[in-house]
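Dear Dr. L.,

I hope this message finds you well. Following up on our conversation about the binding site, I have prepared a predicted three-dimensional model of the protein together with zinc ion. For your records, I am including the exact sequence and ligand specification that went into the calculation, followed by the structure tokens. Please feel free to forward this to your student if that is useful.
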Amino acid sequence: MQASRRSCPKCGYHWAWLMSDGRFKCRLCAHRYKWLSVWDTSRLSERDKQRLLEFFVLGVPAYRARFRAPCSRPTTERFYRQVRAVMAIHEELAEPFEGAIECDETMLGGRRRGKRGWGASGKVLIFGMLKRDGVVRVVAVPNRQKATLLPLIVQHTTPGSLFYTDQYSAYASLKVQGEHIVVTKDKGVPQGRDHINGIEGFWSYAKNWLYMYRGIPQKFVHLYLAELSYRFNHREQDLFPLLHKALRQTDNAEIKRLLGRSA
Ligand SMILES: [Zn+2]
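The resulting structure of the complex is given below.
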């Protein structure tokens, strides 16, 4: 008998019995349901999972960990994907930005040819928003048109924010969401607070990480972007305890939509 960590999927009640087969039984409506954390889904030993998480936190790609990992490379890759999916859920839960926000886009990838490239052109267009205290949010986008970028800005920022962008025309109508300062670089170095150095700093941070990963499977681009923004947004913290806790608190069912069929 034990209170469940998650509420009943049927009625939402937060108290349940733990049954002998490991399922939970809602104390209110008697609905029986399973709850398995991402961490508990893996059959690896506690020690092995901690070792893999340690490698992940230190940024050791699966191919480099292959001689030292406690399991096969596909198992390491699968575990890493699960960690990235948990990071993605945390990034999704973050509040919309307010205050001074820099917006910019960039192309990532493209250096490497072959199967592990970035889709047809080998590159992915990324749109990024950075709040001036250094928190970032990034999304892969099909193009840099106004119809694509503006809804993202509206979704991820609070009206009345102050936007800094380059002079690209898709940003022309940002006034609908707040004040807009266009950063011009034609005349040399941007002056004072009128710059987008924050988001540009993130792009170089992201490119450094991705270089080490040697290309990313197209269908998991969203997971890698989540990893990059999570790492950047927690760059002053030790990721091990954060992720260890998050993996034990996230319902495995929640990450399935992020992992696709190959999970
Ligand atoms: Zn119930």
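In brief: The first strand starts at residue 16 and ends at 18.

With kind regards,
A. P.
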